[in-house]
Please model this.
Amino acid sequence: MKKCHIYTLSGILLIFFLLLSAGYSSASEEVVDGDRFFVSGVITDTHEEPVQEARVKLLVNGKPHNLLFEHKSSDEIETSSHGTYQAEFRLPPGQIETAAIQIKVSKTSYKKTSVDLTENDFARKGENSYTVKNIEMPRILGPAFYISAIIFVLAYILISFELLHRTLAAMLGAVLMLIITYTAGTINPDYHILSFDRAMHAIDMNVVFLLMGMMIIVGILKHTGIFQWCAYKAFKMSRGNVMLLSVILMIFTAIASAFLDNVTTMLLLTPVTIEIAITLGISPLLLLMPEILASNIGGTATLIGDPPNIMIGSYVGLTFMQFVKNLAMVCVVSIGVLFVYTKIFYGKQYAKAKIDDIDGFIAKLKEEYQITDKTLLGFGLCVLGLVVGLFVTHGYWHMEVSVAALFGAGILFTYGVMTKRINMIELIERDIEWATLLFFMFLFMLVGAVEETGLLALIADYVLELSKGNLTVAICLVLWVSAIMSAFVDNIPFTATMLPVTAYLTQVIPGAAESNVLWWALALG
Model:
């Protein structure tokens, strides 16, 4: 499939030259008179991924020869973000028959590669000759590889074990990569890790804007008191039956986490949960732990429920409904198992809970946790419903989910500010988690750097070797390694690291691409 895309792209490039070659005529003649030759192609690595910013040179009889691209003459050109290159060169009439022509391609962390061109490689049309040369560049482990790997691992340790705030750790790592590139890399190209353009390209703004949009929506809704009010209603429905209360709280938390930020959901539910637990005479952890587990399970069910799912969906182009169809039932079963687990491990402690005046405590909760702004809540829920509807149908509209989130956030934010129900500056400062957004941006840059230098390709090759190309083994590896790693380290940087690895495994392991099963394994892990 990948090779088919490369051949298609090469054909498009050839047609592009045939259509635009006339536009080069005047500028070309200023460079040199003679026969005109157009060369294009795609440069890929051994994983058939495009190699960006590779330097392409032309040698004629062992000497550098100028290339013409976009009406500019230069002794080298760079490949595009798709790994493509295209240029024109001139030779004196008839020299193509005897000249030794070579295309040389070089890039840090790749082996220098060259291919020969002869007269037979060109197809002639009118006065011009055309050829397409696709080139594969093997990776090498040079200084840039080792430096980027060390910085990445150190940043990963700082983030995972909270030795430094994760935003600062990711920022420090990303900036180190860039400063080494533009200092040592300028003196010696072997130390070139990541260009600024590539760093910007590595940032997935769809993820960043989706998170921002949902932060604004949740930030406005939480001012209405809806989350605390739901906890009060849960206790009222349970009438002091702690097992029933725990089940209701788990169901609400799972549903809320499927559509909203699960961390914020837990932060808002925690105070009222603690108050209820203390009144019942039990440890708050007996209610909070099942809620936390339910939050993680609910967040896994949808594209927007958890940051790793957002990253996976944006990277692969999976839709909201694909997540629901493939993961929702697994999550429903998991919630059922969680109910049983809670009954077995917490049932005895729940039975010890008692409260003298249930009606009095319900009245107290009703007074303390009221809906503070019913109008804003009603409008906010309508907007949230519209946003969820756009999430469900975004595949039909060919629309990124971030557009839907920002649309809803814009409407709700504007309404809140114009009706003076929301303080704009306060919401921007307190409810939009700028540190989290910056963390994602710097993390994408870090991962982009080690992808550029070949560390992730090395990991992908190792995992492929372990699985022997067996899909079942690969699923188990991705699922259980993800689950175990997420138990000890932050799952966000782990997911970001695994995205290119899983993409490669999906391409090369038979049956993986059709079902996207490795992506579901990564999401569940």
